[in-house]
Each structure stands twice: as structure tokens, then as C-alpha cells.
Amino acid sequence: MTPPPPVAPPEGADDVAPRHARRSPRAARARAVALAGLAVVCLGAGALTSVALDGAQGEPVARPTTAAGVRTPAPTPTPTCVPAPLEQRAAATLVVGLPDVRTATAPLARDVVALGVGGVFLSESNVVTAQQVAALSAGLRALAARPLLVSTDEESGRVALMRGVVGAGPSPRRMAQRGTPEAVRQRAAATGKALASVGVDLDLAPVLDLDDGPAGGVIGDRSFSADPATAADYGLAYARGLTDAGVRPTMKHFPGHGRSTVDSHARSALVTAGLDELAATDLLPFQRAIDAGAPVIMLNHLQYAALDPDRPASLSPRAYELLRDMGFEGVAMTDSVGMGAVNLRWDFPAAAVEAVAAGADAVLTTDGRQAVRMRDALVEAVRTGRLPEQRLSEAAARVTALAGGDPVAVSCVDVARPTLAGPTAVP
User: Fold this and answer.
1) Is 376 exposed, middle or buried (0-12, 13-18, 19+ CB in 10 A)?
2) Of the residues 153, 201, 209, 335, which is catalytic?
3) Which residues make Cβ contacts (< 8 Å) with residue 343, sequence separation at least 6?
4) Parallel, antiparallel, or unpaired for β 251-254 and 296-299?
5) Residue 215, Cα to own-chain centre: how many angstroms?
6) Strand partners, 254
7) What is the tens place of the pLDDT at every residue in 392-425?
8) What torsion, rounded to 10 degrees, do the Cα atoms 92, 94, 95, 96 define?
9) Catalytic residue among 253, 257, 265, 301
10) 335 is annotated as an active-site residue
């Protein structure tokens, strides 16, 4: 998640090796053909610039649409299997923040856990001491009737929402400039150990975006490098360090945020690079991560002329189609849908429907007070035919599996459980 600007208003595993990690030449050619086919149906390449789009210029709030054209696997449910109620499957796709909540007895904490959300998101407002965060996480899980993801955003550097728990650390750019990938892995393992000790099991890091611009830019020094291979090496090292400590990493922000200087907390931006150019640069670190078994990938809120110039990637069927064509089998998560790039056009309920219909498995918002409305919108969209029930079931199954639950018991759908592969773990 990108950090909000200073004046931004508050927002209203099993060890299964990924089948793409050892892709045969024939499979590699098939993927290339798929990407080429996608390029044909997408818009052509343009100048490699970003154009700001002000979403506040009287644009009407968009209504949820159907998921026409979305390609999702079509597993056949066991005839004797009965899925969980629709309301439970809808809630399972939500990962929500708990503004200013410090104990599991707080009303908002009790409400979202009782709703059955798939996960919670902890930020600085939830942190007083390590002991307090550990009690909060344990209390939330004790209240939950389903496995619950407890997530945070700890990149090191300026985006470090658990700094009070793990301590201050260097930016990713500085880590890459001053140390080896193995040193970064060891540092990330120490970070992961501290996170795990307070009950956090999902970190919304590392950044795989490419950027060598000003350190304080939207991505800036949050990026390990502008070189795709270097960004992949160090990003995977950080992700493997978290994995060594038992914390699942999240690769972000697909399909690459480094080309834009516009903060999507405030408004959207159009990336005009063609698909061939993206494939040769921004997408390479994500392809490396997918081939290694990345469990979670976060999509950003930028618009891409090569994919969908009218929709942010987080709400674009073509963006999710591209991600799946690259071989990704894990949880596709949105960046927070309370950010201006989305929220100026779609309110929270509509954004949840649009995202899941497009292909998202987990919808993130830092404001858990929106959870009931988002859950209800998903249920209503299924009942009215605007959202295929199978798409919702698949999303709920993936989030449930990530949290360590039984996806078949929830959705009557089994899913892959990619686990990050790599060299032997550091001591």
C-alpha cells in the first residue's frame, strides 16, 4: 500500500510447489502466446509517461457491472458438498482495518470479527506496545469463528506501520545499495520474527515496483531498484526472509507502480506504456515472484492504456487476466479501495463488487466500518446476477486457504496453495 499524503482525509499452507516454478519450454511458449493474444485485444502502446486524471471532476459514481469476459477456473463442486451461506463467503473476501482499535473488546473489533471477515489490517493507530499488539491479535482470533489473517504493512524505511514493534530500518533502496540479497533476507527474517511474535501472519510487502527517482516519490526509495533483475533479486530475498519467519509476503503493486508520480490516495493516473514495454520491464519482477510461488500479489489503482484505460488495475478484468496468464495461482488482493483513485468514482460497496467481479480474491480497506455495507453489496450482486456466485466462492476459497482454513468447507471449491520456493532458509 502506498503511504497517504500528509493531508489525506481518513477513509470513510501447505507445502505445494507451484506448477509454474518448473515450467517446460512448451508451457513457456503457451504463456507467451497468451500474453501476445492479450496484447492484440488491448489498446496499443503509447508514450512512456503518466497522465493525471482528476476523478473529482463531477464524474458520476459507477455502478457494479457484470464479470463478462473474466476467465476463472471452473472447478466442479462435489455434489454432496454444501457451501457456507452466501453472507459468510462474501465476508471472507474482505480484509479490513480497525482505526484506533487497541483491544479485541472494542466494538468495531467485535463487529468485524463477528461478520466473518477474512482478515484484519493493523496500522500505527493499533500499536502501543508489542505486548498490547500480541494481545489484540490473540483476542481477535479467539473471537473469530473462522481462520483470521492478521496483516500489516512493514516494508522497512518510511512505510513501516509496525515500527513500534520491529524497530526502525533502512529503505529498500538503501538495503539494495549497501547489502547483498542474503543480508536483506536475514534482515527480513528478523522483521518477520518480530511480526510473528505479535500475531501478524501477512505482511503487505515487499515492493517490486521499479523506481530510481527522488527518494520521497510515491514509490521512490520504497523500490529496491529501477533494474528489473535487481528489484526481483532483492524483493524475493525480502519475501523469503519473511517466509523463513512464518509470515506470508505480498508482492506489490502489480502491474507496476514505478512509472507514475501521482499518488493514488488522492487521484488516479494513466500509464501509457504498451504491453510489450511493460512485459520487458515492470512485469519481470512479478513474473519471477510468480515462478517462485508468491502466495499473494496486490494490484494497484493506476489505469493502464495497454489493459483498461478507464479502470484502475484493481478493478480491471484485463489486469487480473494478465496476472493469471502469467501463472499466478495465489490470492490477488486490491490496494485499499478507500483511496481516492477508486473512492472518488466507486463507493466502498460498489468497489467491492467491481473488484471481485474483475478477479480480486481479497478486497482491502483500512476502514472496517465499511465492512457490513461491502459484504451486503457482494451478497446482493450475486442474488441479482451481477456477480457470478462461483467467482465469489473461488475468492472466498483462496482467502480461506491463505488463512489456513479449509476452502472446500467454505466454498465447495479447492484451490492451489502456492508457497514461496527458493534456496535453503537462512539460519
Assistant:
1) middle
2) 335
3) 11, 12, 337, 351
4) parallel
5) 23
6) 299
7) 999 999 999 999 999 999 999 999 999 997 665 4
8) -120
9) 265
10) yes
Query: Is residue 83 over pLDDT 90?
Result: yes
Q: Helix 181-197 crosses helix 228-244 at what angle (to 10 degrees)? A: 40
3-state secondary structure 202-247: EECCCECCECCCCCCCCCHHHCCECCHHHHHHHHHHHHHHHHHCCC
Strands 268-271 and 50-53 turn out to be: antiparallel
Question: Alpha-carbon distance 364 to 297, whole Å?
Answer: 12
Q: List, for residues 333-374, the tens digit of each pLDDT value.
A: 999 999 999 999 999 999 999 999 999 999 999 999 999 999
By the 10 Å C-beta count (0-12 exposed, 13-18 middle, 19+ buried), 335 is classed as: buried
**And the C-alpha cell for 244?**
523463513
Sign of dihedral through CA atoms 305, 309, 314, 317?
Answer: negative
What's this model's pTM, rounded to 2 decimal places?
A: 0.83
3-state helix, strand, coil in the chain (%, to 5): 40, 15, 45
Report DSSP state, residue 405. Answer: S
**Count of helix runs (H) and strand runs (E) in the chain:** 16, 15
Sign of torsion over alpha carbons 257, 396, 316, 418: positive
Judge whether 227 counts as a catalytic residue.
no
Alpha helices for 65-129 (secondary structure H): 86-92, 107-115
CB 104 within 8 A of CB 139: yes
Residue 409 class from Cβ within 10 Å (0-12 exposed, 13-18 middle, 19+ buried)?
middle
DSSP lists the bridge partners of residue 154 as 160
